[in-house]
Structures
1.
Amino acid sequence: MNHPVDLGKGAESDTPPPGALSEDARRQSETARAALTALRGEVAKTVVGQDSVVTGLVIALLCRGHVLLEGVPGTAKTLLIKTLSRALDLDFKRVQFTPDLMPGDVTGSLIYDNRTSEFEFREGPVFTNLLLADEINRTPPKTQASLLEAMEERQVSVEGSARALPDPFVVCATQNPIEYEGTYPLPEAQLDRFLVKLTVPVPTRDEEIAMLQRHAAGFDPRDLSEVQPVAGAAELAAGRAAVRAVHLDQLVAAYVVDLCRATRQSPSLQLGVSPRGATALLATSRAWAWLSGRDYVTPDDVKALARPTLRHRVQLRPEAELEGATADGVLEGILSHVPAPR
Ligand SMILES: Nc1ncnc2c1ncn2[C@@H]1O[C@H](COP(=O)(O)OP(=O)(O)O)[C@@H](O)[C@H]1O
Ligand SMILES: [Mg+2]
């Protein structure tokens, strides 16, 4: 049942499916996969553990998607993104979202130049590859909207002219799960624009001990000179091309849809996953299939990516929330009930 079926053409046609890779592209795909897999080891030079967060970030980069990072302060979110950008040889910027941050502080603004008597555009921090948007909930909606617009359109409009953002451009926005007072939660329609929501756990006891030992041995989180670029924009582009060629069986596509439909019918949810969410789950599952060394998506790929891709796209009913339900819990129930193709 898992044999790849090309959805565009009849499966019985002799010509290779349009997504099939040439010998050359196959080699590039292998090289890119090896480089992106080596990232894990490079990031591990500074960050202990957090493997699934690193994988989630690589998947987001492959899908050109943005990331919500949820975790309490001090769990190495900043260190992780900084290390990753260095290991990928990508430009990195960080913005602390404060209550008084203005849209222009994010996107850039026109500055009057006295010498030329002209206005000149000074690029804001969104003009980067990896943007760490720290504590996005602390800034009022108008500034959030300027970032979300840049995320969606991959450009910034100033006085009617559009300026393209670099490629790749991926935003990692952090949220503190326990701090809701005096914050501005992102509206549901905006949450849908993040490809995945990754939760950054507190390290295990052993991981925390390993971290302390590194610090005792002289590790300085401000000095990342040991981290080498092991992949870059070229590998990401090759990876992206290879992901586009990953086959999707019609039954697996139906499984993605059935999972999303089940969220719309769940009595615990007042808002289910949108069709946009279904496309997101397909994209992340495909990227994960490729990273795992396959050229077809399995139901297990879909299961593995369902929680990170869907958890921020559903909304609990207040009653369910009061009873202690969580988005992950509801999704887990749905995953165990919706029959998967074999
Ligand atoms: N898993 C970890 N591995 C290595 N260092 C860690 C880890 N978790 C926390 N730390 C240490 O805690 C510091 C704070 O991390 P930081 O990246 O500023 O956290 P956050 O951005 O999540 O608030 C790091 O610089 C590092 O020294
Ligand atoms: Mg931080």
2.
Amino acid sequence: MLPATLTTSPCQHCLPFKRQGFSSEQDFITFQDTLDEECRNGLFIRIVETNTTNEVESFYQCTFCNKEWELSTPNYSWRGYFLPKKSNALKHEGNSSFKTFQWKGKNGCGCCLGMIFLIVLLILYVLYNFFDFLLDALF
Ligand SMILES: [Zn+2]
């Protein structure tokens, strides 16, 4: 019942570009140049998307099989990749919840935990002072 177009596999034109990781920054730059050249040749169409975290994501669509490829830029220990993008339905469904979760995890949680910790410390300090005051008042 599912449309067959969702499970398109890469064709012979774009499959050779598949990369699981780049060995160096130079390797990535060379690869990106090759991709740009293929865009000029008409093999790929470049699609640039900005997601909720303001990271620019580059996608390339193969003009032969319409397969979308995702280019991940390497930085530090991250090797990057050039792999077929997950099917649109899956990507969008997972995207919103995952990105929201990731945002909380990255920016919210550490800050939140620190705040909670400070509040707990403050409450303990206030309680300690209060009991100290009570004891002083009683005895
Ligand atoms: Zn293709």
